Amino acid sequence: MSVSVFPTPATPSEFTSEALGIALFEEDLSRLEELGSPLAPLLTEAAELHRFSGKKEQAFSLPLPSSLGIAAIRRIYVAGMGPSAKATCDSWRFAAAGIAKSAARDKVTDLLLWSPGALEPPCGIPKGTATKALVEGTLLGNDRGTSFRTKKEDDDNGEASLARLSVAGGTEEDLTAGRLFAEAQLYARHLANEPGNMVNPSVLAERAQALALAEGLECTVHDDAAIREMGMEGLWSVGKGSKTPPRLIHLVYRPGGTPRKKVVLVGKGLTFDSGGLNIKTEGHMRTMKGDKSGACVVLGAMQAVARLHPDLEVHALVGAAENMPDGGSYRPDDVLRAKNGKTIEIDNTDAEGRVTLADVLCFASELAPSVIIDVATLTGSCVVALGEYTAGLFSNSDELAERVYTKGKEAGERFWRLPLDDERLRKKISSPIADVVNSGGRYGGAITAAMFLQEFVAEGIDWAHLDIAGVDNYKEPYGYYGKGATGFGVRTLLEVLRSL
Q1: What is the pLDDT of residues 357-381, one digit of tens each?
Q2: Per-position b or e across 266-299, b if 16+ CB within 10 A of its CB
Q3: Which of 145, 310, 315, 443 could cross-link to 264 by cystine, CB 3.0-4.6 Å?
């Protein structure tokens, strides 16, 4: 069910909805008085009973009997955000997600959010950014996830009931942006959660075509024969061990007038990764349906781009393949030729993502864009280095790296830049028989993988590589993320595009 989002006056006396959600900093408790009688005394007493002081993750709810004479409001949810001095945009997202989850349990259909701190945000946080974050947190927290169970009426994982969301004091422009950003991330989440028997390379291409048709985008899908004819031996080789051949997906958004810039988004689209002939162990093969997460992030971003109408020309490229062991699989010791003519020695067939991306980055470079950003679940080494809540950031441009880092911070998506300038480390991807080898070994693996990708980006193009391995899937719910695929990176890409 899609949720309609509306601005509403910030005057508490005018609040009318089935449920009221209140997000408060510690300093804002006195603002409850603005709700007037009978709500203010009831909430003040309830806060005392629950020992609520506005600290982060503190929350309580209050059902309202009809005998109070309040026309519409039947439930109130209150969430704390901690001290305003430590506020980030995620303060509102986390609080709104907590409210949304509580409201979902109560089958609320109409929710109004009021946060005095969003109306008068702390220094450095624009008002519109705060109200936008409230929408994002609510819609992302309201998501019931992806389930293939036969539904029952009492199934807690059934479709959420929220149909209408109002935000006090928000502008239509900011709330619409929040809704589109969240919907794009949810698109990526749900697609990434679908298993390999439901989404293979040809189905992923069909989904991209359906997205293009629905949103007015251009879409071209190149089959395995065309991929080979274009000289994309890396992408073709990775996918040739599967009964489902690879696909190259190309989406385009063109603005009505002359575009300010041309930007290419590239997504890794391994719909399942067994490791190929260097087959993964059982434990590492689980969740490999999510090795297409980079592609899902890029497709989700394109959905929002089509609806936001930026004055940029935006291309999305996905190399879709299934890495399987078979008599036709590519092998260790093979030497492949990428689209730009460079040769690749295969050391490990489980380092397949970078081989597919090599060809797609060549294709992207031929489009002569100002900026290329690729998104990929590329290396376990990145998870070892940064943990499960921070993505790796690599770039040949300080300006672009800073833009991604800053916009990621605003989006609540943590990135940390890792170096590309260690020439001794770069020697690990040198090959005695080819231009480059596809694996530099365990140590510095995230860096050598990024160095490998850089070999296939043309000179003069600003490029950023986002390694989202580790942050693409959460084993337990966290904040406005449910269990499973996260869609991490969608909102950062959109913020970067808006900033361009």
Answers
A1: 999 999 999 999 999 999 999 999 9
A2: bbbbbbbbbbbbbeeeeeeeebbbbbbbbbbbbb
A3: 315
